[in-house]
Design brief:
Blueprint lengths: L2 H7 L6 H6 L2 H21 L25
Helix pairs in contact: 1-3
């Protein structure tokens, strides 16, 4: 069983506050495992990534000026 399968088989439930209290090595290990899991989920489910982030109807501006008010 590889690390990804172990993560899926026994998911770790930890809050952001609890995660921040862990030593950096433990945090990095947990975050790396979750990133690998997320990568597999996004790669295998195109519905999660097949969208247009900013279509012409998504931005509500009257001009193409980048000047702030």
């Amino acid at each position: 069983m590889n690390e990804l399968e172990k993560t899926i088989a026994a998911p770790l439930r930890i809050s952001a506050t609890e995660l921040r209290k862990l030593p950096i090595e433990d945090r990095n290990r947990i975050l790396a495992q979750q990133a690998a899991l997320a990568e597999a989920i996004y790669r295998d489910n195109p519905e999660l990534t097949e969208f247009e982030a900013f279509g012409s109807d998504d931005l509500f501006v009257d001009s193409s000026s980048t000047e702030t008010l």
